[in-house]
Amino acid sequence: MELSWNPEVPGHISSLVPYPPGKPIEETEREFGITGVVKLASNENPLGPSPKAMAAIRDALPNLHLYPDGSHFVLKKTLAERLGCSSDELCIGNGSNEFIDILPRVFVSKGRNLVTHKAAFVIYKLCAQLQGVECLEAPIDDNLEVTVDALLGAMNGDTRLVVLANPNNPTGNFLAAAEVDRLATELARRHILLVLDYAYWEYVTDKSIPDPMVVYRKHANVIVLRTFSKVYGLAGTRVGYLIADKKITAMVERARQPFNVSSLALVAAVAALGDHEHLERSVKLNISSKAELEKRLARYPVRVFPSQGNFLLVDMKRALRFCRKEGWVYHVARADLEVQTYNLLCVVALPEAVMALRDAKVKEMISRLPSNTIVTDVFSSKSRGTLELARLCAAHGLRFGWSHPLAGREGSGAASADPAIFSGALVLVDSGAPTTVRSELTRFWQALDCKVELLSTAVHQKRMAMGSHLMHVLAYSLMHVLEKDGEGCGKSASPSVLGITRVAKSNPDAWASILFSNRKEVLSAVTCLIQGLRKTSALLKAGDTQALTKYLAEAQRLRLQLESGELK
Hints:
Elements: H1 11-14, H2 25-32, H3 51-60, H4 73-83, E1 90-93, H5 97-107, E2 113-117, H6 122-130, E3 134-138, H7 148-154, E4 159-165, H8 177-189, E5 193-197, H9 212-218, E6 222-227, E7 240-243, H10 246-255, H11 263-273, H12 276-297, E8 303-305, E9 313-315, H13 319-324, E10 343-347, H14 351-356, H15 360-367, E11 373-377, H16 386-395, E12 399-401, E13 426-430, H17 435-446, E14 451-455, H18 457-484, H19 487-492, H20 495-506, H21 508-517, H22 519-542, H23 545-564
Parallel strand pairs: 2-3, 2-4, 4-5, 5-6, 10-11, 11-12, 13-14
Antiparallel strand pairs: 1-7, 6-7, 8-9
Helix pairs in contact: 3-11, 4-11, 5-6, 18-20, 18-22
């Protein structure tokens, strides 16, 4: 039985976009029917947890019927001795994320705000919104770095909390000691708390990044967050801690759940702190692995940002061109892009892809795509691999888009594989598509800075007649010319002509249906083409270069008008 009414939900909750966690390996393998998946999405320790931590968990299993120690006495004592602070300056949480959630609730009153920056850990903004707290974001520069001046400029008289990761996730950059000191000092003058998330501190090799305990002892308004999820390999247990002035920890303790950390997590964390060998191995592995990955990425046309974490941020602006070499392009949308009903896979059907389609590995790739995937032919329906691709998709229940999804000032065909076409491109959306699909596709392309035009049925038919259908009318005629003299004549024809005739010849029933359903528009287009060919032929015979150039310039003008939508 379903609820017959909608519960009243505050606007700041109903508008929340849930955080998309990294998909578990088991789920990925189950969804795609594969094995051997290596997960890189959540910056986890590839060595796993400390053997001592696992042993401590096994020893604690007989006591699972008991509630955990809500005061976290042993872990606090162990950390206090390690850090040189008192237990009263520590709070233990269900991962450091618990504190990211609690701090806005405790220290940002109604009408006040929190400040972070663009490209910061997305949870900062999400948790602020969850509390109904406004989150202001300072701008970043071309190197994805934020400055102290930018942070100060983003604040106003209602700012009560500034949250930063040092080093930052996902960019890997950081604020140096002098910058942190300047920021903390200015915030203290304004009575603003500074939260420094040091989740990746153990991986840091750059000496200019300040030690969190040095910063904390120097600035009473600083709150330090640490976690056992990264280098200690305990992400699955959910345990982290906060270091702050006693006035702050006392308030945080009031806001947390009574038994917020499991008994298994508590004993695992204590044991992990004592396994110095595992910590050292984890840090060394990260240094060597990151260097190797940077070396390999240097071979490709991508920009790798320097990172002080256990991850790398890679600028893939030329990813489409790069992936095209392999014959395939997966379009990776921006994080703020929502296409819920369909996954979109753009395939560049170039010769490399045609060859790849004969490869078992690529066929397996198609077989693993979710059934709600739309595959679109980015090259054109004249491509040699299009029909084979369409058949493969159909065999696996996938939707295949025959029409070119991109058309615009950058041209079409192979040029459309260049990501530059996304900026300012004209995308034609067929009005015959279901309403929900039309709206999602429109949002998708608009988010990529494209101009989207919803075609009426009449305009759609006309444009298709002028574009694809006309070429196939000619293909039927050209086929007879090419084929009547045998294979030799066909071999001498240009690849573009062969490409056209091959598609028309492959499925005459389908194209005959298309032509007849649009015969008025196609006949009109053919008439225009014949007139144009006669004009061109006459100019060529007359040898009038100037007149021919003028005529072609007029044709170019008409083409640009068609692309811009001026011609309907």
